[in-house]
Each structure stands twice: as C-alpha cells, then as structure tokens.
From TrEMBL:
Protein's name according to its UniProt entry: Acyl-CoA thioesterase
InterPro entries, A to Z: 4-hydroxybenzoyl-CoA_TE (IPR050563), HotDog_dom_sf (IPR029069), YbgC/YbaW (IPR006684)
GO molecular function: hydrolase activity
Alphabetized Pfam families for the sequence: 4HBT_2
Species, as recorded: Rheinheimera tilapiae
Keyword Hydrolase in annotation: yes
Top EC group: hydrolase
This protein's UniProt keywords: Hydrolase
Length: 135
C-alpha cells in the first residue's frame, strides 16, 4: 500500500497562469518522500549508516492543472530495486478524486557519505529497502 501525503496548494505555488508551476511539483514530490521516510523510520536508519539518498533521474508527467486551494494527495511507493539504484513511483491526485495531476518515477542511489560513492544495494540495505516494495 502506498504512503499518502497531503499538500494544500497555496498562492505562492502558482505561476502567471494561476496553476501550480511545474517546478513546484518536484518540491511536492520531495516533501512526500521525506514524509514517507520519516513515517517508516528510514531517516534514522540512513543517518546511522551515514547513507544519503541521491536522486539521479526524475521522469515526471504533468496530467492536469492544480489550482489554488486544492488539496493534493501524493501516493509514494517503491517500484524497483536494482544493484545500485532503486525507483520510487509517485502519483499526485486531487484529494478525494481520481484526477491525476502528475506522476513520476524517481531513481536514486544510496551514497556513502564517507567515501562520496554510491554503494551496492545488498545485504542489510537490500533487506531494508525490499520491505517497501509493493505488488
């Protein structure tokens, strides 16, 4: 089951056309990923292991405009774990509706903060991330 985060659209999120600016969606998606990590306890785990998530690719599709006052719901879930990277899929909808505003696939690596290099996703790290995969 995906993790759900809600964000209310405010006036400062809007562009000249009075809908959410495309760059703001990246912030909304990041906020939802942080909320997900905090809620599942992974922020503490990654901090203790001196590992950082580094985004290496984002593919985002803008589907419908979001406007001032709407509440957006962001569903976040892991979709793939590879040897050195993993992918999180996120879907932004208008809360309480089936209207998809945007969807994205975010690829990240786990960076060892001591060496500055990406680590292999294996052993304890693989086991930890695998608990987040959904069918």
């Amino acid at each position: 089951m995906p993790h759900l985060t809600q964000i209310k659209v405010r006036g400062y999120h809007l562009d000249i056309y009075q809908h959410v600016n495309n760059a703001r969606y990246l912030e909304f998606l990041e906020e939802a990923r942080w909320a997900y990590l905090e809620d599942c306890g992974d922020v503490d785990y990654f901090t203790s292991q001196r590992l950082a998530w580094v985004i290496v690719n984002i593919n985002i599709n803008y589907r419908n405009a979001a406007t001032n006052g709407q509440t957006l719901q962001i569903a976040t879930q892991f979709s793939k774990i590879g040897g050195k990277s993993a992918v999180i899929h996120q879907v932004v909808t208008v809360a309480g509706t089936d209207t998809v505003v945007a969807d994205a696939d975010i690829t990240f690596v786990c960076l060892d903060q001591r060496s500055g290099k990406a680590v292999a996703i294996e052993g304890e790290l693989l086991a930890r991330l695998s608990t987040h995969l959904t069918d």
